[in-house]
Specification:
By secondary structure, the chain is mainly alpha-helical. It has helices at residues 2-20, 23-72, 82-108, 114-123, 130-147, 199-219; strands at 159-160, 179-180. It has one domain. Helix 2 (23-72) runs antiparallel to helix 6.
């Protein structure tokens, strides 16, 4: 009985050492540290992309707050000086430019772990696409709240080339234009043509941007 037990233990020990010396085990010893290294490099790339996205969002939000503050200091009938008008035009251009940069950084963001991104790199499709779909949805909502039917939309002009101040009449076809180019006088805008941007708008936009960054941060912790 004792001899059988000793033989059993000996077989286990011999089998264990045979496994350690086998090619499969040696492969595992090589693969694990290599994958850990790849994971580290991939995570560093994600962190750089995350910082680029965060920086763009901070710039957009800062420019947006400044634009809304300047715009909301004006009332219908106010004479708008050249300096203020130029500042508004420049801020609008900056916001739209950085929104484009944001889209580019998000498109290039390495979602998931190194394996998932490798599949995307080879096939242009993620094995698990949930993270990217959620990111796209958050970005779309973020941009819509900034641009859709607001004065920041590229379809809404800040300056009217007409030399005559546009009347308050809702029949004017250029009622979505904010300033007269000649005398630079602000006039009333109908709410159904241009959505008003205020503190409530800012709060919602900032909340959406925070959710987007938080989602990307969670995504950088993926192993596969």
């Amino acid at each position: 009985m004792i001899c059988e037990f000793i033989n059993f233990i000996a077989n286990i020990i011999i089998g264990f050492f045979n496994f350690i010396l086998s090619i499969n085990f040696l492969k595992i010893l090589v693969i694990i540290p290599v994958y850990v290294f790849i994971q580290r490099v991939h995570n560093q790339a994600q962190q750089r992309s995350l910082k680029a996205v965060s920086d763009e969002i901070v710039k957009i939000n800062d420019f947006l707050i400044e634009f809304i503050f300047k715009l909301n200091n004006l009332k219908a009938g106010d004479i708008v000086d050249d300096k203020t008008l130029t500042e508004l035009i420049v801020l609008k251009a900056k916001i739209n430019s950085h929104l484009n940069y944001l889209s580019e950084y998000l498109y290039a963001f390495p979602y998931g772990g190194p394996l998932n991104y490798f599949i995307f790199f080879c096939t242009k499709k993620y094995f698990s696409n949930d993270a990217k779909e959620k990111s796209d949805a958050l970005e779309l909502e973020y941009q819509e709240n900034i641009l859709d039917d607001t004065i920041l939309s590229l379809e809404k002009n800040l300056v009217n080339n007409n030399k005559k101040l546009l009347p308050y009449s809702t029949h004017n076809t250029q009622k979505d234009i904010l300033f007269n180019n000649d005398i630079k006088k602000i006039y009333k805008m109908k709410n159904n043509h241009i959505i008003h941007l205020d503190q409530k708008s800012i709060d919602k936009i900032i909340s959406l941007s925070t959710n987007l960054i938080s989602h990307l941060e969670d995504n950088t912790r993926k192993m596969l």
